[in-house]
Every structure is written in C-alpha cells, then in structure tokens.
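Here is one chain, start to finish.
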Amino acid sequence: QVQLVESGGGLVQAGGSLRLSCAASGRTFSSYAMGWFRRAPGKEREFVARINWSGGVTSYADSVKGRFTISRNNAKNTVYLQMNSLKPEDTAVYYCAARLVDSTAYDSWGQGTQVTVSS
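Its structure:
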C-alpha cells in the first residue's frame, strides 16, 4: 500500500477557490491511479475525480465538472484537486485514494481534509 496525506482544506466563501494536495509515500507513485472522493455531513462518500497513472486521462463527477481539475506530479509524488467556483454544497471532507493500475479497487486512503464553503 501507499501512504497518503491530504492538505489544503479550509473555509472559503462561495465562489472562491481552494487547491487540495495529496502527498504519497511508500510505493512507486506512478504505479497508481489516483482519485478524490468526498463525504458531506449525513451523506454517503461520493466520487469526485480520478486520474490515471500518467495524468493523461481524467474523469469527473457531473456535479464538479467544469469547476474542479485533478492533476498529478509524479516527480513530487503528489496529486492535486483545484477547486474553483465553490458552492456551499461542496462542503465535505475530501479524501484522496490510490488504486494500483491493474486493480479495480482503491485500497489506500488518506485521512481526509475538511472543506467548508460559506454562503
């Protein structure tokens, strides 16, 4: 497994921006596809965005498409989530996760970082 540590969460007004980072250690970072997920209060965890091992393929939940951008820097063992035009409904704990490129499941998770968007 790979160890993941998220950072960059905080409190922001609606319409603002935040960039989340997820630093990985322990295994070859480029062996993993990466994803961002979130859990809002009282709701189930949901998919936000994912990126393949090279960064060349990305996909997003419809709720964040056009506002959020996932990227990665394999030299820095880090994946990012740039969040623009934030809405109060984006308030959640955000988690990054890692999936080996030949696996179907995310098997490493970070501890999460809180994002709060005020109206």
